[in-house]
């Protein structure tokens, strides 16, 4: 079983990154590919290998906490690897854990693909069973909102964010509603930033 891969990032797509190590390009699915940056330095990606009848897929994470929560989520009935990635792309591990521990179904159903039944199942299966992940979480007040990724107003960065959101399952109708707000925000500067602002807006549409 792989624990991590250290290599050079060669490609970023809305769904996966390609990390080259010793002449092999590893296709790695990750919650937010645009959180990574192509650069000369070697990068470490923590790996989860998912085997099914027709494929062997690699899922990658920037932190051990993120990978651990992913592994917990895919144990919940109704949540597969794709659904777990969407949850992690929208919120950070601390926010998801807090919602589970506080039995905040209303918060959990805001994530893509999570309905009331799945939210309840997440709470039943995971509350009090998240081990060391709980030690790093400060339970928020009921007024706290979901902070997401980082920010900037470049057209290319905006388009990358829109592509990533489309890959997460958001519709053209939803993205059309929030696009003007993103374009008018002159404080944004990175794809991560556009993702953060966009996801906050999309959650409010629910």
Automatic annotation (TrEMBL):
What is the originating organism of this protein? Ureibacillus yapensis
Q: Which NCBIfam families match?
A: ruvA (TIGR00084)
Region of interest (Domain II), ranges: 63-140
Task: Tell me what this protein is called.
Answer: Holliday junction branch migration complex subunit RuvA
Alphabetical list of InterPro entries matching this protein: DNA_helicase_Holl-junc_RuvA_I, Hlx-hairpin-Hlx_DNA-bd_motif, NA-bd_OB-fold, RuvA, RuvA_2-like, RuvA_C, RuvA_C_sf
Cellular location of this protein?
A: Cytoplasm
**What residue spans carry the region label Domain III?**
153-206
On whether DNA-binding is a keyword of this UniProt record, the answer is: yes
One MF term from GO for this chain? four-way junction DNA binding
Q: Any one Gene Ontology biological process term?
A: DNA repair
Lineage in the entry? Bacteria, Bacillati, Bacillota, Bacilli, Bacillales
Could you give the domain comment from the record?
A: Has three domains with a flexible linker between the domains II and III and assumes an 'L' shape. Domain III is highly mobile and contacts RuvB.
Q: Name one GO cellular component term.
A: Holliday junction helicase complex
The answer to keyword Metal-binding applying to this record is: no
- One Pfam assignment: HHH_5
**Stored Gene3D superfamilies:** 5' to 3' exonuclease, C-terminal subdomain, Nucleic acid-binding proteins
The residue ranges of the Helix-hairpin-helix DNA-binding motif class domain are 71-90, 106-125
What gene is it encoded by?
ruvA
What is this protein's function per UniProt?
The RuvA-RuvB-RuvC complex processes Holliday junction (HJ) DNA during genetic recombination and DNA repair, while the RuvA-RuvB complex plays an important role in the rescue of blocked DNA replication forks via replication fork reversal (RFR). RuvA specifically binds to HJ cruciform DNA, conferring on it an open structure. The RuvB hexamer acts as an ATP-dependent pump, pulling dsDNA into and through the RuvAB complex. HJ branch migration allows RuvC to scan DNA until it finds its consensus sequence, where it cleaves and resolves the cruciform DNA.
